[in-house]
Specification:
The chain has 248 residues and is an alpha/beta fold. It contains 12 helices and 8 strands. Helix 1 crosses helix 12.
Length: 248
């Protein structure tokens, strides 16, 4: 796999109006200089209502950030009230789409079949999926981390050509560490990431309560290629500190 910069992605979830999003990105642009941007690939995933505002700001100020969406409907158009299609995202120059986040799986009932449909749709429309995989606490305690992750990866890529699959970004997010304040140890993260790389050799981001005070240790692990940052990305200063924690 070709070398690429480490990725630090901000998943704002259901936070920030479009005006708050503009302010956050402007502040981030002051905190991260061009040297930081050359070393680290920064991706911003705001809520749907702020995509246009963030996209306009990135374009007008020539900011070196990728624009990502938090979800997508697999169909291009149709009677799907409340949904957003891949064509709508393309029109806003969205480059990345988060697929299969644990909150989508747990709170909204998305199974591996739905995740596969979304993944294939993102690929078909020329965007890059950030595929989320990870085990629950019960699965980890039962020794099922590897079997759970293997199933999620294999089902997500069902029907996807190998050449296309290798352009994906995967985020390993142990479900027991999402929004709980718990974090996998650097050793646990390294072990899980190395296992996923044995299944498919693509960039693997860690996504489980990443914060400025634990980022450096997590990002120093050989198999950790970056981070998908949730709550800590809402504060521009903290997010900038996470991006700067990537080893040179």
């Amino acid at each position: 796999m070709a070398e690429r910069r480490p990725i630090i992605a901000a998943n704002w979830k259901m936070h920030k109006t479009h005006l708050e999003a503009i302010q956050a990105v402007q502040k981030l642009s002051y905190l991260l200089d061009h040297g930081d941007a050359e070393r680290v690939e920064v991706i911003i995933c705001p809520p749907f209502t702020a995509l246009r505002s963030v996209q306009t700001l990135i374009d007008s100020d020539k900011l070196p950030y990728g624009l990502g969406a938090q979800d997508v409907h697999p169909e291009e158009r149709g009677a799907f009230t409340g949904e957003v299609s891949p064509l709508m995202l393309l029109a806003l120059k969205v480059a990345y789409v988060i697929v299969g986040h644990s909150e989508r799986r747990q709170l909204f009932g998305e199974d591996d079949v739905v995740v596969n449909k979304k993944l294939r749709s993102v690929f078909a429309h020329g965007m890059t999926p950030i595929l989320c995989v990870g085990e629950t606490l019960e699965e980890r305690d039962a020794g099922g981390t590897e079997s759970t992750v293997t199933q999620q990866v294999r089902r997500a890529f069902d029907g996807v050509e190998v050449s296309m699959a290798r352009s994906v970004v995967i985020a390993y997010e142990p479900v027991w560490a999402i929004g709980t304040g718990k974090t996998a140890t650097p050793e646990q993260a390294q072990e899980a990431h190395a296992f996923i790389k044995s299944l498919i050799d693509v960039p693997i981001l860690y996504g489980g309560s990443v914060k400025p005070d634990n980022a450096a240790e997590l990002l120093a692990q050989a198999a950790v290629d970056g981070a998908l940052v949730g709550g800590a990305s809402l504060d521009a200063t903290g997010f900038a500190n996470i991006a700067r924690a990537v080893p040179s």
